[in-house]
Amino acid sequence: MRARTSIRQRGFTLVEAIMVITITGILAAIVAVFIRAPVDGYIDSVARAELTDAADTALRRIARDVRTALPNSLRTTTGGSTACFEFLPTVGGGRYRVNQTDTATGNILDFSAADTIFEVLASAGLPLGGFATQHHVVIYNLGIAGADAYNPANRNRAAIAAVSAAAPMTITLAAANQFPFQSPGNRFHVIPNFSVVYSCAGNALRRSIRTLPVAPAALAQLASCPEAGTAGESILVGNVNCANSAFTYTPAASQRNGVLTMALELTQAGANGAETIHLYQEVHVDNTP
């Protein structure tokens, strides 16, 4: 006869399962207490880093843009608001001929009478294809009555008709123009037909443009900063506390340079409440016309 064998099967009892769950929960709660602070700190650090990177990128963009400003064109609102500023960007420039060569050749820029074409001796940023008719030549911009590129009646700004890339390079104006003042360095600048406005509105830092008028109307100074939603605007960065952000422009006594100070405050929700960062930057503005 075959002997009978019995196999006893064993498992967890309900009491044992409840004890394991209880102990596991206690251990998890203890561990959570110790790791919550480092995790929250990491989340807050990431939020601050994102805010700082966004604000720094925006300020660097503005600084790069401002360095192309036409001398003496940077201005704020008529009321002196610190929430926005405006300037005329340059896209090129160079030196114009004022004296003919020994062989009596060379197309000089005549300041004693209206002129339509002049020779370029040295250029910077002038593409070989030439500029479109939407660009203008500006000579000796002082930002004052009689020498203000915002006002076409001053005649220190003239529209370009064509640029000849063949040597010698020449610039032909759309209409004969008599520039009122010569540049001490025989310099000219080329600007597009718009100004650039940076403003803080609607909790965002914004960039917009204003088209330069043709004679006789001048582009009036900003009466107030542009509101959010201005046509053609682009947003550089959001989450901005405009009440605690400001642009301040201080020209030097000699008017040959100036300093634009930019203070920017950004806020974003974090693990332990709102995260706020403050950035401050200064930009040197070259006003040598």
Could you characterize what this model shows?
- The chain is an alpha+beta fold.
- The chain has one helix at 14-66; strands at residues 84-87, 92-96, 115-124, 136-138, 157-164, 170-177, 187-191, 194-201, 204-211, 234-238, 246-251, 257-270, 273-286.
- A six-stranded antiparallel beta barrel has the order 2-3-6-5-4-7.
- β12 and β13 (273-286) form a beta hairpin.
- It starts with 13 loop residues before the first helix and ends with a strand.
Describe the strand arrangement of the main beta sheet, using strand numbers: 2-3-6-5-4-7
Question: What gyration radius follows from the Cα positions, in whole Å?
Answer: 32 Å
Overall spatial form: elongated
Spans of at least 5 consecutive residues whose pLDDT stays below 50 are: none
Summing up helix and strand content along with how strands pair, one would put the structural category as alpha+beta
Taking the sheet with the most strands, its summary is:
6 strands, antiparallel, barrel
The proportion of residues in beta strands is 25-35%
Query: What is the residue-mean pLDDT, rounded to a whole number?
Result: 86
Strand and helix layout:
Elements: H1 14-66, E1 84-87, E2 92-96, E3 115-124, E4 136-138, E5 157-164, E6 170-177, E7 187-191, E8 194-201, E9 204-211, E10 234-238, E11 246-251, E12 257-270, E13 273-286
Antiparallel strand pairs: 1-8, 2-3, 2-7, 3-6, 4-5, 4-7, 5-6, 8-9, 9-10, 11-12, 12-13
